[in-house]
Amino acid sequence: MNRSGRIDAAVPAVVLVLVVLGEIVTGRGHVVLGLSVMAPLVAATSLGRRATICYAAAAFVVATLLGLYSQQYTSDAALAQTIRLVAVLLSGALAVATCDRRLRHEAHASRLSAEAASTRAVVRTSETLQRALLGSPPQVPGMETAARYLPGDQGAQVGGDWYDAFPLPDGRMMLVIGDVAGHDAPAAATMAQTKGMVRALAASGHTSPAGLLTALDEVLDGLALDSLVTVTVATVDIRGAGASAPLCWSNAGHPPPVLVRADGTAALLERTPERLLGAGSVGAVRTEHTTELQRGDSVLFYTDGLVERRGMTLDDGTAWLVRALGRIGLEPLDRVCDGLLGALGSRGDDDIALLAVRLPR
Asked: How far is the CA of 70 from the CAs of 27, 216, 355, in angstroms?
C-alpha cells in the first residue's frame, strides 16, 4: 500500500479516536458519541467494502461503549441511546451501500478507460497497416503529384481505398485509383491483392487501361473474391517534351476524375458508366477514352468518400467538388488536396483516397 493509501485507511480511525477524546474531554453531560457515524462514511469515500464494514462495526462498538461511559443506559436516557445506536447502525449500512456504488462506478470507469485505450491502439495499428498497404505517396517523373489517404470515422476498421502510380515498360506512367467495398480487414486484404494484381498485369504486357481492366476481371473471377471493386486506370504519356501529353483512361464503376484546365475551369471526365469489377459478365468489352493534357492542366482521381457525405446526394457532392476545384484547382497540388479534405470539416463514414497529377507549365 502506498503512502496515500495508508493515509486513506487511517483517516476513519482518527475520526473514531477524536470522537472518544471528545466524549472524554467534554464530560458525561455532553453526548458526542453519535459522531462515530462519520468513520464508516469517511471510509466509504476511499476504502474497500470490507474496510467500510469494519469501520461501521467499530463505530457501533465505540458508540455502545461510550454510552456506557456516559451512563446513557438509565431508564431516563435508554430510549435516546437506543435511537442513537440504531442511527449508527443505519449510517453504517448506508456507508457500505455507498461504498458498493462507488466501487461499481470506479470499475465501470476503469473498464471504459481500458476499452478506450484498446480501441485507440487498434485504430492506430489499423491506420498504420492501411498506410503500409498503400505504400509511399507515388511520384510521376515529369509531372507534379500529390496523394492523400484519410480513414473514415469507423473506429478500428480499415478500408479498401487505394491509389497508385508506376512506370510502364514503354515509358508511359500508369495511374490507378480504386475502392474495394467494405470497411474491414477482408476489404483491406482484397485491396492489397487487387493493387498487386494491377501492377503484375501491367508488367506482363497489359498496358492499355481497358485491356488491363478486362484481364483484371478474369483474374478476380478466377479467385472467386466475394467483393465488388471500383477502379479507374489511366495512362499518361510524358515521354516527349511537347506542349501536351495524352491521357487515356478506363473506368470500372468508379467516380469520374476531374480535369482542371490551366485557365482554372474544372469539369468531370465523365463517360458512359461501365460495370464494377466482380459484377459478372467476365469477358465483356471495356472501353477507354482519351484527352490531351496541356501544360498547367491537372487531374484529380478520388474515391467516393470525398463526394458521398451525410445530408448530401452523390450529385450534390460531385457538383461541390467541381466548384471547389474551380476555385482552388490552380494552387499547388498539396494545398488542393488539403483544401478539399479541410472543407469537409470532419471525417465521414467512408475512407477517402486522393491522387492528383499536373503537367507542369
From this structure: 8, 96, 88
